[in-house]
């Protein structure tokens, strides 16, 4: 599993969950400020991450990750 | 049985469905399943050990005739399902096997894989758990950004386009919806009401202003939601912003709504601007209007799921399941 692949997947998951264009999302995208804070969307993104990497991120913990890059690092460590 | 539940049960009986019940260790759930079989509205598929369910049913004098099971305590059953799920839906076998240990997750995967037509839960799980597991497994309906809860109110003495009945939303889920969320709530409510009751939906988006009689940023959210519904679903008659009286009283609408509207004064679905208004509104009509409120119907998901109130008696649960079965048959 290399970091670029995980980042690419994470951008796709975020685009789907937060209904954004994937081209607008990158490693430095601030999740709360640029994507949103709705728990439903975070649940949808967590579900995609769990389905792909078997890494469970509870909604309450999701807010701890400031950027997409931080999420990628967490998944790389846990998966 | 109330007239409303009787009507819903009769309608559900015309197109019975397979319903997953994850809370198989609950006696009220077993009683509800027995009523589902008795009323011929569907086949209950209980998630859990058949032996444990049969023993609990026997202990409580509940007939299990007509019950089916998904035994998530059996490695063979889980392995076979996981292999098929991975092939038809996707994901990884290890992940599916892990999820199948949880009854509610297993029920949602059965739904996603079309092994059942709908899921009935919430007697033991919280509403939050039901929503999170549904979003995770099946996602949201097209055009909807947030799940919501529709109540069907029967208000003695009210003389609206549907007699004493009105659809009202959101009464339980989304605290402060934005315009996209509100539009989704309106769309889901219109679809639910049409499916359940056969009404032609006329959706009023409520506010403390009628077509510009007041200005506030919170009203802009409602106006934007009307635009979104009209763009996304021109087949739905949706208008606003309206005060409650302009929405449901023709004489007030004639006076206050000067432009043409197919909704003003004869709305049959009311969308509250936020959960404060929804919750207060429902309690007002229940306390002062002595209304019966049916549901709530959990809506907005890609596949139908219902959430029982934890204090609901078995007949109310049967009504919820009947409405769920009708919704599950909507696409047939």
Q: What's the Cα radius of gyration of chain A?
A: 11 Å
Number of helices of chain B: 13
Low-confidence stretches of chain B: none
Mean pLDDT of chain A: 89
Query: Strand pairing plus helix content of chain A: what structural class?
Result: mainly alpha
Number of domains in the coordinates of chain A? 1
- N-to-C span of chain B: 28 Å
Give the overall shape of chain A: globular
Output the helix-strand order of chain A: HHHHH
Q: Cα-atom Rg of chain B, whole angstroms?
A: 21 Å
- Cross-sheet strand order for the largest sheet of chain B: 8-7-9-6-5-10
Question: What's the CATH architecture of chain A?
Answer: Orthogonal Bundle
What about the largest sheet of chain A? none
Count of domain modules of chain B: 2
What is the CATH C level class of chain A, in words? Mainly Alpha
Q: Could you spell the SSE succession of chain B in H and E letters?
A: HEHEHEHHHEHEEHEHEHHEHEEH
Structural class given helices, strands, pairing of chain B? alpha/beta
What is the correct CATH architecture of the largest domain in chain B? 3-Layer(aba) Sandwich
Mean pLDDT of chain B: 94
The fraction of residues assigned to DSSP E strands of chain A is: under 5%
> Which residue ranges of chain A are poorly predicted, with pLDDT under 50 across at least 5 consecutive positions?
none
Protein described:
The complex is a heterodimer of chains A (about 80) and B (about 325). Chain A is about 65% helix and about 0% strand. Chain A has about 80 residues and is mostly helical. Chain A has a single domain, classed as Orthogonal Bundle (Non-ribosomal Peptide Synthetase Peptidyl Carrier Protein, Chain A), CATH 1.10.1200. The longest helix of chain A has 16 residues. Chain B is of the alpha/beta class. Chain B has 2 domains: about 160 residues, Rossmann fold (3-Layer(aba) Sandwich); about 150 residues, Isocitrate/Isopropylmalate dehydrogenase-like (Rossmann fold), CATH 3.40.50.10750. Helix content of chain B is about 45%, strand content about 15%. Chains A and B meet through helix 3 of A and helix 5 and helix 7 of B.
């Amino acid at each position: 599993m290399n970091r670029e692949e995980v980042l690419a997947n994470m951008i796709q998951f975020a685009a789907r969950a937060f209904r954004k264009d994937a081209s607008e999302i990158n490693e430095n995208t601030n999740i709360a400020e640029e994507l949103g804070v709705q728990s439903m969307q975070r649940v949808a993104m967590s579900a995609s991450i769990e389905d792909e990497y078997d890494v469970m991120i509870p909604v309450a913990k999701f807010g701890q990750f400031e950027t997409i890059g931080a999420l990628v690092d967490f998944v790389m460590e846990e998966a | 049985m109330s007239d409303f539940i009787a009507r819903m049960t009769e309608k559900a009986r015309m197109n019975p469905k397979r319903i997953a019940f994850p809370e198989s260790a609950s006696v009220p759930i077993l009683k509800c399943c027995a009523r589902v079989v008795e009323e011929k509205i569907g086949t209950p598929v209980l998630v859990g050990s058949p032996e444990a369910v049969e023993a609990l049913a026997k202990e409580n004098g509940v007939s299990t005739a007509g019950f089916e099971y998904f035994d998530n305590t059996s490695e063979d059953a889980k392995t076979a399902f996981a292999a098929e799920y991975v092939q038809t839906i996707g994901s990884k076998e290890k992940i599916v096997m892990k999820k199948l240990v949880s009854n509610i997750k297993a029920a949602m995967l059965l739904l996603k894989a079309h092994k059942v037509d709908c899921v009935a839960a919430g007697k033991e799980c919280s509403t939050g758990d039901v929503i999170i597991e549904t979003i995770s497994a099946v996602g949201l309906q097209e055009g909807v950004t947030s799940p919501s809860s529709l109540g069907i109110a029967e208000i003695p003495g009210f003389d609206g386009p549907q007699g004493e009945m009105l659809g009202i939303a959101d009464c339980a889920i989304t605290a402060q919806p934005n315009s996209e969320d509100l539009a989704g709530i309106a769309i889901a409510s219109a679809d639910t009401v049409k499916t359940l009751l056969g009404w032609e939906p006329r959706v009023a988006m409520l506010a403390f202003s009628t077509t510009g009689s007041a200005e506030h940023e919170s009203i802009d959210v409602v106006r934007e939601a009307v635009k979104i519904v009209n763009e996304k679903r021109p087949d739905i008659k949706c208008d606003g912003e309206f005060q409650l009286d302009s929405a449901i009283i023709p004489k007030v609408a004639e006076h206050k709504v000067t432009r043409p509207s197919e909704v003003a004064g004869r709305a049959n679905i009311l969308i509250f601007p936020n959960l404060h208004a929804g919750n207060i509104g429902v309690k007002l009509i229940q306390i002062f209007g002595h209304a019966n409120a049916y549901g709530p119907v959990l809506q907005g998901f890609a596949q139908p799921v219902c959430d029982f109130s934890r204090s609901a008696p078995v007949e109310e649960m049967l009504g919820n399941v009947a409405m769920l079965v009708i919704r599950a048959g909507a696409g047939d």
